[in-house]
Amino acid sequence: MASAWLSTNIAATGASSITYGMSGMVVRVAPVDPINVKNVNRHNHYRCCSTAASSTSTASIYPPTKLSSSSSRGRKRCYANRRRAEAVIRAEAETPIPMATSVIEKSGIKIIKNPPESRLSDLGVRTWPKWGCPPSKFPWTYSSKETCYLLKGKVKVYPDGSEEVVEIGAGDLVEFPKGMSCTWDVSEAVDKHYSFD
Q1: What's the half-sphere exposure (Cβ side, CA atoms, 13 Å) at 5?
Q2: Mean pLDDT, residues 14-18
Q3: Are 113 and 167 spatial neighbours (Cβ–Cβ below 8 Å)?
Q4: Are the C-beta atoms of 172 and 112 separated by less than 8 Å?
Q5: 154, 169 contact by CB (below 8 A)
Q6: DSSP label at 105?
Q7: Exposure on the CB side of residue 124, measured as CA atoms within 13 A
Q8: Domain locations in the chain?
Q9: Cβ distance 173 to 115 under 8 Å?
Q10: 159-176 pLDDT tens trace
Q11: pLDDT confidence of 5, banded at 50, 70, 90?
Q12: 14, 25, 111, 101: which is closest to 63 by C-alpha?
């Protein structure tokens, strides 16, 4: 049985079904409230389920170009309000929710997760030189303090003389203290901005 769902406005009608076109297709209507916004539901909103009489037919139906209404002005206002409400809902859905900033300190390494763009701008991070490496494992000693911002990658840092494992990744702003010796275990290729003090 062919079926299709429509969303439309039907005002000033008490009918529980409407027949479309020559196919004899029957449309059953049931009131719904598609958008919970003030003044949008000025007329009845309906979700329509169409069913064809023949199980072998693949007919499709289209909403009428004009629906009867006791007030065309009210209908136009309803449509305009609905369009505005839908635009607001789409804009809110497309707006990314900012991640919370958190600070972690382990074995002398300071990690700022999800730093705000204002912090990165104040530091001039985007103007710092860049460095990268493929997945690998190697020792490293910091002869001076380094601050870096990871654009991509995933690393486990094993500080010498510590049993702690420090994990850093894309989006982290990291400070390594002067004199630290450690081993970098890079599981995903790294690309970062860096600055030495």
Answers
A1: 3
A2: 46
A3: no
A4: yes
A5: yes
A6: E
A7: 5
A8: 3-94, 102-196
A9: yes
A10: 999 999 999 999 999 999
A11: very low
A12: 25
Q: Tally helices (H) and strands (E) across the chain.
A: 2, 12
Note whether 155 and 169 are within 8 A (CB).
Answer: yes
Element (H, E) at 91: helix 72-94
Asked whether 85 and 45 are in contact (CB, 8 A), the reply is no
**pLDDT above 90 (res 31):** no
* Maximum pairwise Cα distance, the chain: 85
pTM to 2 decimal places? 0.52
Least confident of 36-45, 62-71, 110-119: 36-45
Q: Which of 99, 102, 90, 192 is nearest to 147 (CA)?
A: 192
| 191: β partners | 132, 152
Residue type for 64, please? P
Whether the CB-CB separation of 107 and 150 falls below 8 Å is answered with no
> Domain 102-196: which CATH class?
mainly beta
